[in-house]
Amino acid sequence: MIDKLVDKIQKLNAPIVVGLDPMLDYVPEHITKKAYAEFGETLEGAGEAIWQFNKAILDTTYDIIPAIKPQIAMYEQFGIEGLKAFKKTVDYAKSKDIVVIGDIKRGDIGSTSTAYAMGHVGSVKVGSKTYRAFDEDFVTVNPYLGTDGVKPFIDVCKEDNRGIFVLVKTSNKSSGEFQDRIVDGKPLYEIVGEQVAKWGEEHMGDKYSYVGAVVGATYPEMGAVLRKLMPKTYILVPGYGAQGGKASDLAPYFNEDGLGAIVNSSRGIICAYKMDNYAKFGAENFADASRAAVIDMITDITTSVGLA
Questions:
Q1: What residues act catalytically?
Q2: DSSP string, 69-103
């Protein structure tokens, strides 16, 4: 699947991923009104509104984006109905040939870690039949529990060429409380990055590993160090746009071949219709605003890092 992701990024010249992280107040009123009219102001109504919101954005952007990254917490807050919307979103994106990165940030050990992996990037047996539950192509993984927590994911991923992105240096302001601590003379995030590169050797694609890394756009100097430590690791870069990361800071995340990084934007795309630059579209045409924002993001990044 890493080979497919790289291929789509190259064909579209779009090293980006759209974060489908909907809150109800992101959804235009005409969408929620219709959902509530059918299902009431219920969890089912909320799930329907989110699904229709996502579907409209996918319908207008699928031909210009290589991947989406739905954050599962935004769906879990609505319980089972939210998870149904998550599953519909994953399935619909894949029907459009979009790579899906499930932002689940799981981290546990042993059979529990394996169960998470089976549910999201693997399959589960029920009697004589086998099913894929959520069926993402990649998921994000928290490495805090060490190899015991990560290896079960790698083992499951090997069965069907799926992949993971391991949290290495996250974009949030307090990430340094732990990630920047000096251990044996180097920052902890460097130690994690070195381990990610080792894990990646166990599950390689044609050029890049199926074991990727999450490195925030808000720390470009650290990104440059980690890029050198993980030359065959694809880097998922959150923090662009709403969190303060700029396209001009992204060059260090890419390799000399122009590959090696995929940049995420969530609110900047799905809430584009609320922004001054795209206000002309209005709430009724929110999905068209999202498409325009995607095009602008692609231009911004490819121009800034020399890919245009």
A1: 105
A2: --BTHHHHTTHHHHHHHHHHHHHHHHHTT-EEEEE
